[in-house]
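Practice problem: predict the structure.
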Amino acid sequence: MQSGVITPGTAWGLPLNFKLLPEYLKELNYSTTILGKWHLGSKNRSYLPGARGFDYHYGNYGPQLNYFNYGFGTNNLTGRDFYENGYQVPQNCTNNHYYPDLILEKFEQVIHNADPRKPFYIHFATTLTHATGEWNGTTTLVNILETMPGYSSRPAVTALNDTFINRRRQTSSIQALDEQVRRIRLALTYKGVINNTIIVFQSDNGPVTRIFGTIAQGGTNYGSSWPLRMFKQTMFEGGVRAPAFIWSPRFRRAGRYTNQLFHVTDWLPTLYQAAGGNVSTLVGLDGVSQLKSLVTGRKIIHRTDIPINIDNSRTKFVNKTEKNPQYGVIWLHNITGILYKLVGGSVFNDSYAGWERTEGTTAANPMTTPTAVSVQCNGVEGVEKAGSTPCRPWSAACLFDLTNDPCELNNLALNKTGILSILQSLLAAYNSTSVPSVANSTVDPASVVNGWWVPWQDPEPVWVSPPCAPFNPSSAS
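Answer:
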């Protein structure tokens, strides 16, 4: 799965031999819910949330969708992608309600109706701040930023003038995301369960920027990773360093930030242990529980390295027959405590590896609010350090000191050859046990039936919802 995303109509998904977190939590008597996007495969019903540990799902199966008609388009196919527990949710059941608000109101409803005696796990998979994915009827997937006046009129948005209208739409999407976080916390508070709840906020990758859209010859979200280098689908910090936090009254040190290494696979054992599970019974996992460090606030080292990705399917942009794997790995020096990072391989069209300032901002007016976790480049933002070796990963691997150079301004590959060798050996060890990608990008026309994306390889691809009353937002909470 390291070489592509799962789009509707493609016959693959997260392999069924993997047991997921909600399946483990159900064994601890948890109710399990997912709201929003699934994005782990939908070729048949064995790949859908209801078969992977979730009691309830309300949302879409694909990566993105129109926020009003809930359609998604690709490869000259388009269809509605909105389901409730495997059943199609027809238009009159939702009345084209703004999708981010719709799943937020469903969260409030789920919490309001929850049995306070039964523990719950809710995966709120918002599509914000992603743009939509719509087929233009000819050859192009079009990304459109859709918002609502209640968000676009907020001061953080109107601070940008109309010259940057698309960045304003993106900022408006961020406001909608902020509103989701606010109301999720309020719903838990009003239910009286906030003091026994753990909240995790995380993103899967960096933003799709304006330059990303130009290079990829597709749509853009007009996002920003400034002052970090590059963007989504790259191994640079702009592609992999994203906002994240975990909150709970159970944690003894509030407001702590750390540079401890925490891999996505660590969430399962960490949250399983937090739910009362015995992590010693978990076998065959790559993740480790980091609960003790979170609860006590102590810096307990569970990891000294993290592979970001190894994509052996990548080819050179000019010569598509010549392999040029994309890779990245981070390593903690056990004496100095410095985090080093190795980046290499193909990057889009193998011609650009730079920085992109947030639209509408300048060095004099960055339009940011400094915090304890704000990135400090320790150099001139957006410019490679004078005298350093230019980083061109498609030609040679790059090495960075993330502790002192989080913006990746200074390529140390020629200056610290010993460190470079250590990371290359580490990468080779990971690569020796890597599993070939099972990605399948072929979209089957049979996957759209009567204007709906369906689990077309299932004996029962279409489950139609029973009649429903016209949607009223006030009835959702």
